[in-house]
């Protein structure tokens, strides 16, 4: 299982985060985006070494990069005092890799942080790269070009669900189930809006296929997440962690996150007016109701 989990985490570190940062169009993030391969390479190497001082030092280097990224969140929040749902989703994305990196440092050092066993810490790393960073970022992008309450609900419920799942780690299985329900509702809303975007008449065939694939994958992967959380809370039969990594984890990484980011990059390249322009940092904080 951990070989697969490590491969998924590497995808998040080396591909998903820098691609997502590029999509924000924020020049404030250009420097950390250029430095990101340096930090991510250390984090990726840390995954494959035996637990100990060397792996921990490499993980700390990656954590430093995530902290530098997270420090942009309060600056953007202060600048955008009338922060809307899309802005909240963006700030969640910027902070999430730091949560993953803290778990990585603890796991690589063999320290059961807050009493969580090393297996749970290892799974926290991909969770906050994909459910935290990728899902929140994509929910914010969807919110920015989709009018109506559905887009705003998606941009708020994905960060809230991610936070509730994190809180559930401390409060117990029922709290984690509540977080999974909220996160699933948000992700399915993202999927529905993405499906509609994929059927827009002016999409080229490749972009449409990427959007529709990412939307369809969410139906299955989040149903698996609900099944696992419900089983943990009630004792009902549910998938094992190995099975979840091979289905839910891999599906969200490749089918949702990667396909979505590729699609949004194509949308941004083909129709820059629909997404934030690199010179206009206010769009991500203030823009809320653009039509697809």
Can you tell me about this structure?
This protein is mainly α. The chain has one domain (2-276). Helices cover 80% and strands 0% of the residues. It is built from 11 helices and no strands. α1 packs parallel to α10, α6 packs parallel to α8 (173-198) and α7 runs antiparallel to α8 (173-198). The longest helix has 30 residues, at 205-234. The N and C termini lie far apart (40 Å). Residues 273-292 have low confidence and may be disordered.
Major β-sheet, in short? none
- Pairing-aware structural class of the strands and helices? mainly alpha
> How many separate helices?
11
N-to-C SSE string, H for helix and E for strand = HHHHHHHHHHH
Radius of gyration: 18 Å
Instruction: Write down the overall mean pLDDT.
Output: 88
Low-confidence stretches: 273-292
**What proportion of the residues is helical, as a percent range?**
over 70%
């Amino acid at each position: 299982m951990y070989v697969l989990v490590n491969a998924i985490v590497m995808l998040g570190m080396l591909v998903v985060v820098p691609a997502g940062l590029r999509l924000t169009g924020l020049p404030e993030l250009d420097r950390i985006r250029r430095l990101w391969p340096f930090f991510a390479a250390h984090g990726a190497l840390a995954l494959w070494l035996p637990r100990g001082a060397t792996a921990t030092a490499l993980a700390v280097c990656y954590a430093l990069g995530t902290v530098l990224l997270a420090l942009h969140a309060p600056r953007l929040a202060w600048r955008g005092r009338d922060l809307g749902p899309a802005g909240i989703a963006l700030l969640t994305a910027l902070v999430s890799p730091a949560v993953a990196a803290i778990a990585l440092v603890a796991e690589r050092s063999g320290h059961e942080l807050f009493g969580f066993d090393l297996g749970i810490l290892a799974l926290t790393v991909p969770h906050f790269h994909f459910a935290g960073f990728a899902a929140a970022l994509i929910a914010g992008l969807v919110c920015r070009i989709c009018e109506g309450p559905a887009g705003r609900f998606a941009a708020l419920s994905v960060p809230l669900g991610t936070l509730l799942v994190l809180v559930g780690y401390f409060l117990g299985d029922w709290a984690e189930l509540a977080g999974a329900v909220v996160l699933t509702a948000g992700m399915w809303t993202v999927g529905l809006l993405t499906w509609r975007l994929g059927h827009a008449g002016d999409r080229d065939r490749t972009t449409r296929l990427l959007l529709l694939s990412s939307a369809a994958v969410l139906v299955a992967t989040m149903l698996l997440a609900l099944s696992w959380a419900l089983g943990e809370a009630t004792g009902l039969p549910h998938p094992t962690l190995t099975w979840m990594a091979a289905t839910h984890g891999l599906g969200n990484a490749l089918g949702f996150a990667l396909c979505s980011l590729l699609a949004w990059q194509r949308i941004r390249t083909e129709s820059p007016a629909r997404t934030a322009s690199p010179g206009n940092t206010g769009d991500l904080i203030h823009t809320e109701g653009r039509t697809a």
